[in-house]
Amino acid sequence: MKTLFAVFVACLFSSLASAQETQSSAPLFAATLNDLNDKPVALEQYRGKPLVVNFWARWCGPCRAEIPELLKFRKTHKGQVEILGIGIEDNAEPARDFAKAYEMNYPVFVAKDKGIPLMMALGNTRGGLPYTLFIDRNGQVVQKKMGVLKKADFDAVQEALLKK
Fold this sequence. Notes:
With 164 residues, this protein is α/β, with parallel strands linked by helices. It has one domain: Glutaredoxin, CATH 3.40.30.10. Helices cover 43% and strands 20% of the residues.
């Protein structure tokens, strides 16, 4: 009986791990969000590129705290991995001012009413921020993180993002 239970638990954890591995990035590439000039942009244009997709908000302290790590990673891997910032914001102007103040030199979008549903479709069932997805060039979500990104998070996924 103990063996049967152990096998059941192992299968359960294995299926949970597989579920995370097979998280679909399709909702991201199906989305059209507004840029900081309030112009619509189809995110389909980022398909086929390794991505770090970071959901944030101006009022989110942890979101502010992780921006320097995003900037460092982008500088180190410019041209190899693209970072996309998706602001859970209603208006482009304050988001644009925020992005400028924090020197966010990567594509930043304003999600408006699409932000929370998009995060949830991408595996963030709690709707918390910050939330980040690491997507390889094949569109596979290789990792996701709820909470502040640290250098170790980037180190852990770097190889998977950069492989051809």
